[in-house]
Amino acid sequence: MGKKKLNRKKLNPQIPVFTGIKYTDDFKMQLFSYTQNELNENNNFHEKDYNGFIDETKNYWLNTHAIHDADQIKSICKKTGIHDLVIQDILDVNQRPKFQQYEDYIFFSIKSLLPADTIEIEAEQLSFILGKNFLISFQERKADHFEHVRHRLRENIGISRERTTDYLLFLLLESILDNYFKTIDIIEEKVENFALIDINEDPSPELLNTIEVYKRQIHIIKKTIIPIRDFATKIEREQFNLIQQKHIKYFYEIKDICLTLLDNCDKIEARLESNINLFFSIQGHRMNQVMKTLTVVSTIFIPLTFLAGIYGMNFSNIPELTWKWGYFGFWLIILIIFILMLFYFRRKKWF
């Protein structure tokens, strides 16, 4: 079953609707609760086990895989005090990325790329709810974006367990952007392999279609990076109670990463545009070569046709018609004209 469009005019906001594709039957939630010195991990967390993120001495990270189960998503969000509109935004995977601040939490949704060697880009929607001491992440499918973050939490590597959940959000966004780098590198490598340099061969029209596909992919990537950049810029310019001042510098880094990715996209777009221009230049050059050849051939046959037209007239008093060597003389004149014209065109470098 494919993705479906959501008509919010006819939608009951209290009945959330999942608009994506059900990739797996395995709905799974994973809960980390941690302090600097302690970590508890529950890989089979269920919403009925939830009793609130009540221990303010701990930080909580609840990660959800496969958000097709709208009832469980609604239940866990309701217990956390999440608004109905946010719940629908989590389940509506066809909408544009968005950022919204509420009284006790921040909602943020983005698109994440799944690196692959195929020509089509695979993407999924990820949503985040950042609270005072908790972060809830919702993944559309079971993709392993955050395994290294889990490893850092388990092994207490770096400062991940010392900091609050806004720092954890930074780590998750950094992981997502790493997938963008991988995807862009794959596209860049393929673009560099385009065989458009040999002007002696006609470029395949299929190649032009491929270039257009990559241009469309780069456009999609830029559309998904810009909201992340805008989110980081918003944190940079405004004050948010849930983002600690000492962590703002990390979101500066997110902004810089986004700008680097956008620069890479612009470079690939410029290269694709150059390839398109080269494609049409080669076609134009090949057409000019063909037209030049046809012109030379046509020009050579103009005087020959003229002579043949004269001696093909039905007049009885043409002197050369009664000459013994007239026929051979005619062909000799034609051959001389042909050779002289070839010699002249060659000196002019017309072929």
Q: Overview of this structure, please?
A:
- By secondary structure, this protein is an alpha+beta fold.
- It is built from seven helices and seven strands, in the order βββααββββααααα.
- The chain has helices at residues 70-80, 84-91, 147-155, 165-192, 205-237, 248-311, 326-347, and strands spanning 28-34, 39-45, 59-65, 98-101, 106-114, 122-130, 134-139.
- A seven-stranded mixed β-sheet has the order 2-1-3-7-6-5-4, sandwiched between helices.
- β4 (98-101) and β5 form a beta hairpin.
- It is rod-shaped, with a radius of gyration of 35 Å.
- The model has no long low-confidence stretch (mean pLDDT 83).
Concise description?
This protein has helices at 70-80, 84-91, 147-155, 165-192, 205-237, 248-311, 326-347; strands spanning 28-34, 39-45, 59-65, 98-101, 106-114, 122-130, 134-139. It has 7 helices and 7 strands; from the N terminus they run βββααββββααααα.
Flag low-confidence runs: none
Question: From the helix content, strand content and strand pairing, which structural class follows?
Answer: alpha+beta
Percent range for β-strand residues: 5-15%
Mean model confidence by pLDDT: 83
Main beta sheet strand tally, sense and closure: 7 strands, mixed
Can you list the strand order of the major beta sheet?
Answer: 2-1-3-7-6-5-4
The end-to-end distance, rounded to whole angstroms, is 60 Å
Radius of gyration: 35 Å
**Backbone shape:** rod-shaped
Oligomer: single chain
Count of individual beta strands = 7
| Residue share in helix | 40-55%
Query: What pattern of helices and strands is seen along the backbone?
Result: EEEHHEEEEHHHHH
Number of helices: 7
